[in-house]
Amino acid sequence: MEVVCNLLRTVIHATPDDLLPVVYLFSCCIAPPHEGLEFGIGESTVLEVVADAYGIALDRIKEWNKKDLQIQCAEQTLLAALGQAAMYNEEDSKLPPEVQSPLEEVSHLIEISEKCVIARISSSDSFLQGWSTMLAIKVGHGEAADIVKQAYSVFPDFDKIVSALLTDGVWLLPKTCKFTLGVPVHPMLAKPINCVSDALTKFKGIEITCEYKYDGERAQIHYLENGLVEIYSRKSERITGKFPDVVAAVSRLKKIIVSSFVLDCELVAYDRAMHKILILQELSTRARKDVGTSDIEVNVCIFAFDLLYLNGQTLLQENLIIRREHLYASFEEESEFLQFATSITSNDAEEIQKLFDKAVGARQSIDIMQKKPNLMSGSKTVFEVKASDLTCSSEYPAAIGLVNPDKLLTFIVGGGDFTFSIKGSLRGARLVAVAKMYKAQEQRKESNKQSNMTNEDKDGDEDADKGDHRLSR
DNA sequence: CGTGTCTGCCC
DNA sequence: ATTCTGC
DNA sequence: GCAGAATGGGCAGACACG
């Protein structure tokens, strides 16, 4: 942290023009996520560089890496960077005169090196920590760090943030970098929790709201005043080109009074002939670039669950219940094209249980997908809980107002489909939470059964034992 | 022009 | 996406 | 409790190679 702060200070002081690139490098990216620019440097390249720098055959490195001498990401990049630095010092200690700054020096290094590597020193979050802490130190105020983080979560664009910080300072950041239609905000993510009763305990006495968590692709749809539509993924990638049908659907199904919006939803593969939801696998086979409406083979249904912006006004400061009301008022539902996520708001355990059971029951209408062992590996995660109180720190920051004064919470019950093959092994896992819930119940039943008949079952049916406890195998 | 490799992103 | 670990 | 790092399956797209 200190090192990062010092580095940033030094850069600001010595070579301010390098600040933006440095910021991007520290964030493991080279542009805002929605602009779709990538490094294109992965493990294989890094290993090549390591092999090159240390004079070891690439095959051997790869062999080692597969077996006992696993070099992890951080070590790989470090090794590569050190190796390159060593080579650089030996062979090219002199810099051409036109090199003015450390960043240019790095560029030069990359140019003279056959393979280049960008050491991933830290993740974007760490960077934000360092950057905001540095600011906090600079202005002698802890609030500064949070301001920067908040700004980034609603406006993830370092170009603007860095220049705004340099020109107008941190205190004006909420004004200079605020939510903008067309720029994706950081999505609200679900958090796992152990079981229904845990959730009820946690939110004791508080009215909670529960909804299905559909298994598809998260999408944040921006509809601009001029009718332009942009769709962003969970990681804020621009995926508009993959879903021309979704663009058409939201344009058609928004109500006439709606001139702009940001819709948070799950895009789920849907078979309109069979009237059923398809597994995620189907969705992922869709082409991703420049898809034409006539090219589409896998249709999708939009399951809408939140509205973040409406008719020129942000709704980020409203609580979820209000946002939902706006959502319901702003779109026409059309079965198999755009539906609102099934939800209830209640503090009654039985009612919640009912919704949960319904979600479990929904598996009947859903297709089978291929085994996903990792989903069944014995975790006790049952529900996904998404609560503004719990999650404001990692989702929408508290400061932009998602902590609800009236304590209304989003409580996402995992719902949806998984299914059993005829033989009885778990074949699909559409909604992880439900599958796991079911699994946990099975296990509980099984262990009860076993403890009840420990004595008779002396010869130990090992197959049944393993099969029942680890559906993944 | 197919095939295999690599990368990044979806979950 | 899940899981583990260290703070 | 939270953040970070490591982990898995599967896919399209970009690219190099023969």
TrEMBL record:
Q: Please list the residue ranges annotated as the ATP-dependent DNA ligase family profile domain.
A: 293-360
On whether DNA repair is a keyword of this UniProt record, the answer is yes
- Which GO MF terms does the UniProt record name? ATP binding; DNA binding; DNA ligase (ATP) activity
Task: Give the principal location in a single coarse category.
Answer: nucleus
Chain segments carrying region Disordered:
440-473
Organism domain of life: Eukaryota
InterPro entries in the record: ATP-dep_DNA_ligase, DNA_ligase_ATP-dep_cent, DNA_ligase_ATP-dep_CS, DNA_ligase_ATP-dep_N, DNA_ligase_N_sf
**PROSITE patterns given in the database record:** DNA_LIGASE_A1, DNA_LIGASE_A3
Write down the Pfam families for this protein, in alphabetical order: DNA_ligase_A_M (PF01068), DNA_ligase_A_N (PF04675)
Alphabetized, the UniProt keywords read: ATP-binding, DNA damage, DNA recombination, DNA repair, DNA replication, Ligase, Nucleotide-binding, Nucleus
Q: Which GO terms describe its cellular component?
A: mitochondrion; nucleus
Gene3D superfamilies (UniProt xref): DNA ligase, ATP-dependent, N-terminal domain, DNA ligase/mRNA capping enzyme
Single GO BP term? DNA recombination
What SUPFAM superfamilies does this protein map onto?
Answer: ATP-dependent DNA ligase DNA-binding domain, DNA ligase/mRNA capping enzyme, catalytic domain
Where, per UniProt, does this protein localize? Nucleus
Family the entry assigns: Belongs to the ATP-dependent DNA ligase family.
Tell me what this protein is called: ATP-dependent DNA ligase family profile domain-containing protein
